[in-house]
């Protein structure tokens, strides 16, 4: 009896009349949202008033871009949707980059933007922008609330859409008068979206075709993308690869889905992938893509991509299958469900002994390579030192460019959900704010934010947040006083005309850290770097590390734009004697 | 190649913008669009005629449209037995001397005169786009002042021929 009563009370509560702002707070509670990243402004004042009263954990970043990248970092590590609030007009337009980034990398976000009152929409009112129009192509879905009665349904749909199927950002634009209007709050209703029914279970006939193809293949390979991580399918991937003796290659975003120290792992594929991974893609007779989208940075010139292979593609988004690469075995499914089905089939494993021997030979002869140089800091060496210092257990966030590629190459991720990087969009300024969200998603983890001196200067205002929340993030600036990847391309393809890519005029990053109230340390040689890292990781709180690395170092191997994966440059054969 | 794609969508604000935006973003070339209500309240029907380079692009269009939350159903009906119609209004120069000639000319098209003025006529024609095209060409020598076309609207016939080569866009 007593239990009944409680349930009835609960139900009555969820049907209570309340303001739009309070509805939002109640909906966030119902969705078990732990943290909101945001920035107030005129159109969201009623909402922020309710946030104040409700005592919701809200992180005030120092720019809306910081808020949305932090939410992305949070989503990437926690697997839960990142929640963002921005005001109308400039607040909303400042999150455009983050929305696009989340769209490209399939990160679940629910973003609320304020809007001018419905009575003045369309009149070019103060801080008005057509946010729904602007964000239509860069969100999985978006809404403008036109009546208070729609608000609960829309919020519920937004969380559902953001987190199911192929995840992505969903935006809700809320006019100011809706936040103060009163209506009935009913959050128990079921989501009814006849136009949105993602397929999550594989087609059995296609699974059997794949099992058959594997049993007949001699040189199969798995290309695993971030779909593995979104589906929490790392264990299944490993189990399947081991059951069938199939080697595994990762995309940039997939790193950590398969243990880097596993004998079947070949490394990352693509423009700066390993020799073995890229050659395996060229030589394989069966390519099983699981949760990757055949991005151009992975495939190189499509004309030369996997020319000998039958292609199987497992993806939750049917539009990715056959988009770039003709696919013989299409499997629309959640990666975990498909892998479980494949494992259960216990198909005859491929006879891969000769293939694996060939791959091992390549791995041994053509490993990732750089010339050590003790008097300076080699950026690759720096990443290796960080890897050792953190036992390969840290969450690593990066910006975009050379340092990102070195981190991907030399930080060996053995666990999933440790790697936070901007892949599809390639957003500079992503790494530092993303680290805030990543740390909040996993408080006990060591978080290292590896950034370039260029990208860092795009969003370093978020140092304030790191200091304020005492987040023990280790910020590593790979400082080459240049926009390194741009400089590298200019060196290689533009006859060394370094057009606006060298930025020797820098602030003193150590003093900058101190200005924000956190320690800063600098190193210019390998020995200093070792010392500085030791100090930094012994500290409890945040610390900024400025490493002056070899400025003219390039990322290799490299597949030049327009070339096939087999046309790598910067591959060096390892001498037998030196092994 | 020319494809006729029909779809049903939720009649929500911005839905047309969503669809045309998708075409712009992915560089699909729209020849015509028609939109209107269906027999079900709150649901609209759209008919697109698009020009694509190959089957893969056609398949991509269908898949991308299907991903839109407000899109309920998408069909490429090009290769099916269909009824496709377009309406055109054609204002043609028509001094009294040639009027009778024009009347005779349009008759086999079952077109009709919907407006008459001192020196021009407005002709309304309905039919398959090719028929509309043919009539416009016939009238061109008389001096066409204005043409307004609705674009193609279409759906599949009640009975499909057994041999119809219906292309399955994708086997899920």
TrEMBL record, chain B:
Pfam families: ACT_AHAS_ss, ALS_ss_C. It comes from the Bacteria. The keyword Transferase applies. SUPFAM superfamilies: ACT-like. GO terms for molecular function: acetolactate synthase activity; acetolactate synthase regulator activity. Keywords: Amino-acid biosynthesis, Branched-chain amino acid biosynthesis, Transferase. Residues 4-79 form the ACT domain. Gene3D superfamilies: 3.30.70.260, ACT-like. Chain A, domain 2. Its EC number is 2.2.1.6. The keyword Zinc does not apply. Pathway: Amino-acid biosynthesis; L-valine biosynthesis; L-valine from pyruvate: step 1/4; Amino-acid biosynthesis; L-isoleucine biosynthesis; L-isoleucine from 2-oxobutanoate: step 1/4. InterPro entries: Acetalactate_synth_ssu, Acetolactate_synth/TF_NikR_C, Acetolactate_synth_ssu_C, ACT-like_dom_sf, ACT_dom, AHAS_ACT, AHAS_small-like_ACT. GO terms for cellular component: cytosol. It catalyses: 2 pyruvate + H(+) = (2S)-2-acetolactate + CO2. GO terms for biological process: isoleucine biosynthetic process; L-valine biosynthetic process. Dimer of large and small chains. Catalyzes the conversion of 2 pyruvate molecules into acetolactate in the first common step of the biosynthetic pathway of the branched-amino acids such as leucine, isoleucine, and valine. Belongs to the acetolactate synthase small subunit family. NCBIfam families: acolac_sm, PRK11895.1. This is Acetolactate synthase small subunit. The lineage of its organism: Bacteria, Bacillati, Bacillota, Bacilli, Bacillales.
